[in-house]
Write a structure and sequence with these properties.
The protein is α+β, with helices and mostly antiparallel strands. It is built from three helices and three strands; from the N terminus they run βααββα. It has a domain at 7-53.
Length: 77
Amino acid sequence: MASEEEILTISELSAHLRVHPTTIYRLLREGRIPGFRVGSAWRFNRASIEKWEHGELGAIEAELAPRRKPKGRKAKK
């Protein structure tokens, strides 16, 4: 029986969703899956993932999405 506070690692989530870990990293980069960092490692709340799977979360709120600087050239001023 899974606890609502159960926390998953990338490899556990990968097995749960039946996708390659690279896919999870891509979803995180795009801000399309709920997760949080512990040091340099990503973690996932099982209850949040289940809501996300069933479409109950909708788009991840901006404050929860990971913030990344865009790669590439700087814009000229």
